[in-house]
From TrEMBL:
InterPro entries: GAF-like_dom_sf, HTH_MetabolicPath_Reg, Tscrpt_reg_IclR_C, Tscrpt_reg_IclR_N, WH-like_DNA-bd_sf, WH_DNA-bd_sf. Residues 53-267 form the IclR-ED domain. It comes from Planotetraspora mira. One of its GO terms (biological process) is negative regulation of DNA-templated transcription. It holds the Pfam family IclR_C. Keywords: DNA-binding, Transcription, Transcription regulation. PROSITE patterns: HTH_ICLR (PS51077), ICLR_ED (PS51078). Residues 12-73 form the HTH iclR-type domain. This is IclR family transcriptional regulator. GO terms for molecular function: DNA binding; DNA-binding transcription factor activity.
């Protein structure tokens, strides 16, 4: 291997490690220490300290008086840029807030954009419920998420077939649908009832219910979703179904009446 090629590989590995450190600092909410990060990420202490010093110098992390690390202003700025670009319209944000206030459970809105459903905004719920790695901008594992299945079900069947042709469906949890034929059957059921359910398919211990909203042409534009712990999903499913479908219906009505304009970032 030539020296330039070796150098490029070294730089890429270093960048990847630095990004992993930044992600871990963000996830720790101000409690991260160099020792903890080193152990969590499998890095040598010296390497971890070097990466932290680099991120600190660039403003991507800050060192708190306690010696712990938190996200810095440069990283926060990246997040603001992402939210400005992919965030929902004010009208959709209001509908989401109303939906959240009914249950105080994790609620989010996603937008369909060029073959990808992107999580645009979410509101946390009671307790510390987490839904896998979901965050603003997330687009992965479309076969395992209720928010995605609710939109996929109303796309042309040939489009859905093309999207998943040759794609391996990862088993995110033991409950994830990993068979293409089974997924097609599931989408047909979603289409008949008008909403999608994820029973611990994306995140263990978490169930989600989602309903799509449509533009004036009848094409799905996005979806509203509520996530709840599996332990209380059954008792709340009927009320969740009604509320989520009402939220989606409100957005559809606004779109079709011309009172809600979906930006290109949302489509």
């Amino acid at each position: 291997m030539s020296e330039p090629e070796a150098g490029r590989k070294t730089v890429l590995r270093t960048l990847e490690r630095g990004l992993h450190v930044l992600e871990a600092v963000a996830a720790a909410d101000g409690t991260a220490t160099a020792k903890m990060l080193s152990r969590q990420l499998g890095l040598k202490p010296g390497t971890c300290y070097h990466l932290l010093r680099t991120l600190l110098a660039g403003g991507y992390v800050v060192r708190l008086p306690s010696g712990r690390y938190d996200v810095g202003h440069r990283a926060a700025s990246l997040n603001r840029h992402l939210q400005r670009r992919s965030g929902p319209s004010p009208e959709l944000a209001v509908i989401l807030t109303r939906l959240h206030n009914k249950f105080n459970e994790v609620s989010f809105v996603s937008g369909w954009n060029h073959g990808t459903l992107t999580l645009q905004h979410y509101i946390s719920g009671q307790g510390t419920l987490g839904v896998g790695d979901l965050d603003v901008g997330y687009t992965g594992h479309m076969h395992a998420r209720a928010s995605c299945k609710s939109v996929l079900a109303f796309l042309p069947e040939e489009q859905v077939a093309a999207m998943f042709r040759g794609v391996e469906l990862d088993a995110v949890t033991p409950h994830t649908i990993v068979d293409h034929d089974e997924l097609i059957v599931e989408l047909a059921q979603v289409r008949r009832r008008g909403y999608a359910v994820d029973r611990e398919e994306f995140s263990a211990g978490v169930c989600c219910l989602s309903a799509p909203f449509f533009d004036e042409t009848g094409s799905p534009t996005g979806s509203f979703t509520v996530s709840v712990p599996a332990a209380r999903f059954q008792e709340r499913q009927a009320a969740l179904t009604t509320a989520v479908r009402e939220a989606a219906s409100t957005a559809t009505g606004l779109l079709r009446a011309g009172h809600l304009i979906v930006s290109p970032a949302e489509r």
